[in-house]
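Design a sequence for this backbone.
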């Protein structure tokens, strides 16, 4: 293939953020397609054209590029407003990523609202006041500046008022109550995305959180999952993520632009259920990995647990939703997220402590002691998965998933995590 004209290459390199300059070539390569799409994307054309041309065409009218002249109340009304619903560790990191981009992309309002479940800190100060005063979440993400355009708001109704894009990132067990509170409070054309790992189990069967949001609020909901240890992304260490979407590729690309930074690369995949189930089920496998670590069974055993876990993740997902794609499990939301969660996630950490103590201390007790208010997802997800398997008569096909739940509730000792091989069936 012929190389592109030198002037085109120079133009693309001139568009690179200065923060990309020191990144090695293999890190910059994934961003090259993003830059191409940014150059030719209508949603970004205005922000880029200011550095490329002296004039801008809009609605058949030539407008000067002077920012003071171009800014108007009309433009402000048509800018996209973003609200992050949730303010824990991952929610705060999401707000940081988004806030850096709303300042850069002219189609978005600068301000990013972040709904905070209000708490009183040991100092007596309200958490929202501390966040807004310090520009950091002093409880869940201390030492990290979120961006001065992030505004913490303890009033859910006020936080979502006027928002065009909603980012949901709370513990999954709270989402049904949050959705009920938001009915009739949001715009009819709002777009949503869920960063939540987990699912609701109802009498009629399992309900993914994205589906819960779509059905209760009557809006489209994408998902974002990936190998994303929040504290590492907060420190701007290179990472990837996957956006799962149903039909509208343009909406998926808008989410990609909103989240992507030189150190956080996002890829769209048309498979909402597959992406979301990967992010949900990997926490159950991480609990198993924690048991292995707590019992000092070694890396070979842990690798075996991860492989079997991935196998059960794929089988469970495809048995629930025939539309799930095999290729999804090779995205960041799949095998990459499984690896990083089994090596360094909070589920693995607490499960290790549980196994070291012989299962004598409950997960609730360990969670309260070790996570400073953050919530485990793996234990509750293991319970929900077990309910689905039991109801559908699938328990014998998923020995690892079943064993994790039985250990969590005390029916089996932690050492049983490797004994499930004796009842391994053919899926």
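Sequence:
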């Amino acid at each position: 293939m012929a190389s592109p004209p030198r002037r085109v290459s120079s133009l693309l390199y001139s568009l690179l953020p200065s923060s990309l300059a020191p990144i090695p070539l293999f890190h910059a390569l994934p961003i090259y397609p993003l830059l191409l799409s940014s150059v030719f994307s209508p949603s970004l054309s205005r922000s880029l054209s200011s550095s490329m041309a002296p004039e801008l065409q809009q609605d058949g009218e030539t407008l000067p590029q002077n920012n003071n002249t171009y800014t108007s109340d009309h433009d402000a009304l048509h800018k996209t407003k973003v609200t992050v619903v949730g303010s824990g560790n991952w929610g705060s990191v999401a707000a940081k990523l988004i806030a850096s981009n709303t300042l850069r992309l002219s189609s978005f309002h600068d301000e990013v609202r972040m709904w905070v479940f209000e708490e009183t800190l040991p100092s007596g100060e309200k958490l929202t006041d501390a966040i807004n005063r310090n520009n950091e979440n002093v409880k869940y993400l201390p030492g990290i500046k979120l961006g001065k355009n992030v505004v913490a708001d303890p009033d859910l109704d006020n936080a979502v008022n006027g928002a065009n894009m909603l980012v949901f990132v709370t513990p999954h067990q709270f989402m049904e109550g949050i959705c009920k509170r938001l009915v009739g409070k949001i715009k009819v054309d709002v777009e949503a995305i869920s960063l939540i790992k987990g699912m609701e189990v109802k009498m009629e069967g399992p309900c993914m959180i994205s589906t819960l949001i779509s059905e209760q609020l009557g809006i489209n909901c994408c998902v974002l999952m990936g190998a994303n240890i929040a504290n590492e992304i907060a420190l701007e260490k290179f990472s990837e993520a996957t956006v799962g979407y149903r039909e509208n590729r343009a909406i998926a690309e808008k989410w990609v632009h909103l989240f992507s930074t030189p150190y956080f690369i996002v890829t769209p995949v048309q498979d909402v259920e597959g992406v979301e189930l990967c992010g949900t089920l990997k926490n159950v496998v991480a609990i198993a990995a924690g048991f292995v670590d707590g019992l000092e069974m070694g890396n070979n055993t842990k690798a075996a647990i991860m492989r079997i876990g991935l196998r059960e993740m794929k089988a469970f997902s495809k048995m629930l939703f025939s539309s799930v794609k095999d290729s999804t499990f090779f995205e960041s939301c799949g095998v990459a997220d499984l690896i990083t969660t089994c090596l360094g996630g909070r589920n693995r950490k607490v499960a290790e402590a549980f196994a070291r103590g012989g299962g004598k201390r409950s997960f609730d007790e360990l969670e309260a002691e070790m996570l400073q208010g953050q919530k485990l997802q793996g234990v509750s997800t293991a319970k929900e998965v077990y309910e689905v398997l039991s109801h559908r008569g699938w328990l014998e096909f998923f020995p690892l998933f079943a064993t994790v739940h039985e250990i969590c509730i005390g029916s089996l000792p932690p050492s049983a995590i490797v004994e499930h091989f004796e009842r391994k069936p053919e899926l």
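The radius of gyration is 23 Å.
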